[in-house]
Protein 1
Amino acid sequence: MTDAPPRQPKLVVDGLAKSYGPVVALEPTRLDVQPGEFLTLLGPSGSGKTTLLQLIAGLVEPDAGRILIDGRDETRTPVHRRDIGLVFQHYALFPHLTVSENVGFPLRMRGCRARALAERVEAALAMVRLDHLKERFPRELSGGQQQRVALARCFVYQPSVILMDEPLGALDKKLREHMQIEIKRLHRESAATIVYVTHDQEEALALSDRICLMNHARVEQTGVPQEIYAHPRSAFAADFIGLSNIFRGRVERSAEGRPLLATPAGRFLFDGAAPGAEASLVVRPEHLTLEAEPKNGVAAPALNRVAGEVAELVYAGSETRVLIALPDGAVVTVRLAPDAALPRLGQPVTACWRPEAAVLVP
Amino acid sequence: MSLAATVPAVPARRWRPRFGPLWLAAPGFAFLAVFFLLPVAQLLGLSLEDPQTGALSATAYLRLLHVDVYLRVLGITFRIATLTALASLLLGYPLAYWLAQLPDRRRGRMILLVVVPFWTSYLVKTFAWMIVLGRTGLLNRVSAALGGPELDLLHNEAGVLIGMVHAMLPLAVLTMLPVMTGIDRRLGQAAGTLGAAPARSFWLVWFPLSMPGVAAAGLLTFISSLGFFIVPALLGGRHQTMLAQLVIVQIQEMLNWGFAGALAALLLVTALATCWLYDRVFGLSSLSGEPPRRRGGGRGLLRRLGLGLLGLAATASAALAEAVARIAGPGLRRRLLPGYVVLLLVFLVAPTLVVLPIAFTSSHFLEFPPPGYGTHWFEVYLSSPVWISATLRSFGVAFATALIATVIGGLGALALARARARWRGAVFAFFLAPMIVPRIVIAVGLFYLFAKLGLVATNLGLTIGHTVLALPFAFIAVAAVLKSYDWRLNQAAATLGANGLQALRLVTVPLIKGGVVAAFLFAFITSFDELTVAIFVSGGVTTTLPKQMWDDMILQLNPTLAAVSVVVFVVITAVLLGAERLRRSG
Ligand SMILES: Nc1ncnc2c1ncn2[C@@H]1O[C@H](COP(=O)(O)OP(=O)(O)OP(=O)(O)O)[C@@H](O)[C@H]1O
Ligand SMILES: [Mg+2]
């Protein structure tokens, strides 16, 4: 390369695509991952996350596109020669080998000498705090322990790129949260570049430097978690990450010439440019406030409001969600602080928000 | 609540029998105790009795040791059984491997090419080999046409081995396959991402995980070969006489029960010793496809040695694969296995098909190719009262056998699925025992018992004997579907108000129907094709189809046999394809 950028991406997915017969598993996709970055692929079931990971690992051949690692084209490199680590959802530990033999396997494949091998296995097992179980067979371990062996087996040979496919999917919530911290620590200590797959948005928000949101075999949006949350670029993104109220309608102009969105729930002002003739307005529940007294007709001009009846109160510990049924059948969620005064069920209420708090998406 | 008022409460009963699940195995236990354990024990007892005085005596065993002919037969039997088992494993492993790699649907179809030969009558297969291997047979015709030498393949060890391996290969493949398909594909992928080239990944991960299947296949082929007599009798010469043939001679010609008993004991002890060895190393439960439990020795020296050897194999074959790929291109390696598979499938399927043209020959001899075609031999078959009554009897006995074996074996499988873990081993071993004990031992034992009960040459006797042999197959077929059955459905049914029997009838049976039908059909085929028991228990006018074929084959080969073979082959294949259809639609 003549003029290499100052920071070359560790991994570049360039136009990678894959179909299984008529099923498109992955549309042509572009993705850059920086060295040491923790990138999460987040998306609903069947959105192509595993496919993308398998393509990067070389387990599946792409129909089109390239994979660059450190600028080298690795698209045609066989699996076993790519310097990539893969942690499977169900661990894929070798049942006939002990814990230390499992962890030593990749070193053995790399012709590591016996003494060095034993030391590195020891160190890797210490890192996941399993050094006392190294003579056990996988089936003699709990789910969490097996997962830690899988992690050790991956980190032990220090691959420059580590792929993880829902590694915590089979664990219960408590253990999952514990393992998330563990993975974060491993990431920090190893400085590895990690591409992580999950369909749990909380996990994605907790772990990632950046999130790559996938839907229908396409990348929907890529960005740091706060950015996706604050500025979703589609109704899907808004809906998938965090709770949202979404109103769909036509873009019109008010009497004063201000742009507004005409929806079945009402006409709402918005800030910024409209993405088209039709659009969706996204309002996060924490941006809504309740007005206990509906002030019919005398709306303060700066506010958007919807009126309805309280349909449900959902207590969630750190907050309470109020579900308001609108006359057109839509339901709007409002988030209240735990100490706020709660409305009664069935009480008519009005929820309002400032136009600049909402985001308009195509 | 209004809903509760409209639904009648489940009537409370004062007395409800509490049958534990183990009771379900009771009919099977009783049946096998009387018609399997007892006769085998009696036969062993006879071998220790002085025929004149009835006193305890080891004469029979001493004779066995002192006459060289018998020792030689013993040696031949071991030699042929060992070679057969080894060849079946070696030849069958790549085929099983290939099948295991196929996508499920495709495998379902390709496996029929192994299943049909598996269930094809040994008599038909052997008859076909006589046509193929004979001095004027198909192979020699081809050789002569190509200007090759005359091949001497019949009535010698080569003939016996060809026939035996052909007979045992399907069993070996079908035993290895479930273990192989049970290997998680992701393990191979994992090995790949961890840096193992395909050849190494095979030797270090796939091969050791397939070992339980290989061992089970070795066990079953070895034991079945030990007691075989059809192939050596028809394809072998005097120097290939095997133990089972001696037993038949001792009973049929000499009526020497004591000596036959001693020979049977020898067979039995060998079979059991092999099983014991297998159980020590792998655990019998791995026969049912359950994960092998490792004994304390799992971490020992033997394991280390095994892993070391595999490591060497891995390194060597990875280097070889690399070299081959460099010289011949990657294409060769990809074509090697499919090429081999095609050849092996031809070996499995083609010989049997040879009987087709012969059945329609216009000649009076088994010439190949036939000089002309006609349906003369089918007319002979259809107009022969002996053949027709044998056919009808075979159908009737097979039907009765299938019914009884399915009920008893199905209940036994239920017991296996529901009983406490510590009883499971016993249930499993007991129901499978008739498969482990050489058939000839069971047959001779039953002959002795039936002679006393007046059941020789009766349909009832035949049915009982066939049920003993068919039970393991019915048991396995039902046990296989029950293994994947979700018993929480019965709990769900119970919470909805069904009692145990209702839950069984309305929930369990409909869901495992496929397995039950398979059990019925497998038991049917087992009986329809059964010769060993029939040789002793059917006689005179109550002959069965296989027995009649056997008599004709010993006496004089003729094209009627080919016509009958076609009938048998068509019946069995039709039943199998029917079972396959049912399995798919279910
Ligand atoms: N081997 C295959 N053969 C046929 N179709 C496949 C295959 N693998 C994946 N697909 C299809 O490709 C699409 C994407 O699958 P993929 O496994 O990548 O989804 P995913 O995002 O990982 O979903 P999940 O969260 O459920 O794991 C799906 O529609 C799936 O049915
Ligand atoms: Mg997936």
Note: Residues A 49-50, 165 surround magnesium ion (ligand 2) (CB under 6 Å).
Protein 2
Amino acid sequence: MAVVVGQNKMTLNHVRAGSSVKVEYLEASPLKERLMSMGVVSGTVIKVLSSAPLGDPMEINVRSYNLAMRRKDAEKIVVSLLPTA
Amino acid sequence: MSTLSVALTGNPNTGKSTIFNELTGIRQKIGNWPGVTVDKRMGYIKHDDRAISIVDLPGTYSVNARSPEEKIVIDYLLNEHPDIVVDVIDASNIERNLFLTLQLLEHHIPVLLDLNMIDEATKRGMKISSKKLSDLIGMPVVETIGRSAKSTKKLLSVFTSTVMANYKNSDLIESHIEAVAAVRAGEGKDDDKEEKVIALRYALIDKLISETVDTSNMASTSTTEKIDHFLANGFIALPILLLLLYAVFEVTFTWIGQPLADALDFIINTWFSGVVDDALTTLGVADWLHSLVVDGVIAGVGSVLTFVPLIFTLFFCLSVLDGTGYMARVAFVMDPIMRRAGLTGKGIMPLIMGFGCGVPAIMGARALDSEKDRMVSILVTPFLTCGAKLPVMALFAAVFFPDNASNVVFCMYIVGIVMAIIMAKVLNVTTFRDKQSTFLLELPPYRIPDIKTVLLETWDKGKGYLIKAGTIIFAMSVLIWFLSNYNFSGPTDEMTESFLAVLGAGVSHLFAWQGFASWQAGAAAITGVVAKEAVISTMGILYNVGDVADDTVDAANQMMTALGGSFTALSALAFMVFTQLYSPCVTALGTIKKETGKWKWMFFAFAYTCVVAWIVSLLVYQIGRLLGFN
Ligand SMILES: Nc1nc2c(ncn2[C@@H]2O[C@H](COP(=O)(O)OP(=O)(O)OP(=O)(O)O)[C@@H](O)[C@H]2O)c(=O)[nH]1
Ligand SMILES: [Mg+2]
């Protein structure tokens, strides 16, 4: 499993709670189109919030609403860390 | 003038049904989680002498016709050509909401944008310029607060005064549509093209937002985030969930519902029954009529009516829970467990509806993403403790476990949930070997439940229970009275020789190893298929007879003593488990047929739940005996 995709880049499932990231691109997955329709497209800023028991699924904040997804699906979202404000 | 047709569309959970209810007076279900409304619903109203028809549609994030709801929406809009399509937008969540708006505009469907929940947007520090937004896209824009009658009523004047033909897509939108058409006409795979189109839409949305929404005053961390940090974070979320459910239950059962039920029990089954009894004696009516009224109707319907306070409190609690937004968190927290059962956490939301009644829960399964999730959810819903089973549990727990009544009933709830999850897993492995479920769920902001919604909903559902008591249970009581007092040779003094005794005895053979092989239990199990409450009205009739005539005796206590005679604590527990799990009532069976479209599934639901109930109650009884209980 490629954790580090490039410099400063990683997949969303590895982002720690409280961090903000920017979406680079989405890898092919069954949920890709639905995720994109719900506003997860390249350039979108995501804040990782919390996770359910056993760490999966996770809750993120995107475009001023909260969305829950499984880590397996988050793995398909490649992001870059934003400097913490 | 012809009827003005209005359609309410928009993302899930934006307040469409709230507005619909305010405008039409109809009581659609409202809840603070996405996917509450699963089918369209029409309402009619007159305003300024103009007849208006309004349709409430299921919420959708897009209209690609990929899911049943999306199909309902787009088919309706394209085929029915409503005069006004209202795009209800959650103003505090305007970015993502505009995605659907753009899709509708691309279909050349003119929309009236309704920035609903404007109160929340303001509270969060967002300033939206409706005027600018309207100029930019070319469509009219209004602002509403769905929960305020005053605010929504204004919509009616907007409807009658707005001529959608006067509005057309702005140049900005038209050039967007051209860009979309160009992508679609270009080279490449369909999926890739669709993704490019989505990116185009969000690029335009980013532009619209930057020009119309001022977010400079928005707090970086919302209250919802802070609450979620406790309620939906890490392992601790599970015990909290259990604790909250227990609290709901404790309120229903121990604090409010049961004390009131006890009082009512005395009023109906002792006082009222006694008064009627005396009156009938004084009037000198025929013996059979006297018996029918006192031993049949009052004993049967009364034993069900006793639980009205419990039912009202339960519905009140469920409705409050529904309004807070915690439901979606339950789905979130339960997903790890549901996933291991091959299901999705989302499946929990319709199941929780099942604590009220299985029928809406079975229909609510439509909101699930895959056909498999929906089928499994439908088939396991009957295991949950619906409002009609609660009285059965309450009665038996009160008689046999007086010191632990509420805990025993809570355990029955847990048994129902656990069996639902286990059987979901079993069905998943054996019957619906399908691809893995997915889980993508919007977690709405926590809201203070709208008290008006809560009270109306509680009243409506409670009323439903009352009506059922006055119709089905009434009719059943008469029938049970007849069957338990007559046989082929006419009236019989010995109930054990009645029709019902024969029928019940036949069925009761099945329960020889469960410890409740009495004909009364068998008869109750049969009548319970018609309506679960009938289990207690049957018991009420069968164990009450003869006692009520002596009005110095507390009829309710008499019934309890009689019950105590034919069950031991352990066999009562086995009976409770059986009642908890076996066949859905006929109404629920009918709904299963309707929702799955096949008789096969209806019969399957009946048969497999009975088998499961039989096995589990057997285990309870036999293991209990091995452990030395009786
Ligand atoms: N604060 C606030 N809450 C609102 C407003 N309008 C609706 N609500 C609440 O928002 C929640 C969702 O309302 P619904 O009417 O069920 O939403 P819906 O659009 O019909 O949802 P679906 O049927 O799931 O698509 C409920 O808890 C409402 O009480 C509003 O203007 N302001
Ligand atoms: Mg709705």
Note: Chain B has 27 helices and eleven strands.
